[in-house]
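Title: Prediction job returns without error message
Component: structure pipeline
Severity: low
Priority: P3
Assignee: unassigned

Description:
Job completed but the reporter wants confirmation the result is attached to the right record. Sequence as submitted:
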Amino acid sequence: MRSYVPSSDPVQRFIDIIENIERIGRFTASMDLGGFAANEQTTLAVKYSLLVISEAAVKLGTLAADLCPDIAWREIRGLGNRLRHDYDSIDIVRIWLLLERDLPPLKAACLEALIALGANDPTC
């Protein structure tokens, strides 16, 4: 079990992103777009996890881009605003494509960032 880490700790923020990507993977395991779109619980759970990812990206500030320059951090931060304020116009297909296309490289980049920050066994 991990001990408490203050919110200003970038290691914890990268771990938050990774853990929520993994949650999304569990939530959507064996689903296709149609199954995802039809499952209200899953779509809401995924949107919440995306909000957490977005907020962690905000808390990382410029360090995120310094350690992971190939990731579209501005868009990740903006996603949280869209989910909060434009929730009624979010296209479920775009969410699904984000899960398939954007989350795997984000997870890989966050794992690399943890290594660069010297995190010991960051996935525990």
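Comment from assignee: result matches the submitted record. The helical segments are 10-28, 33-38, 40-60, 62-67, 73-85, 92-116.
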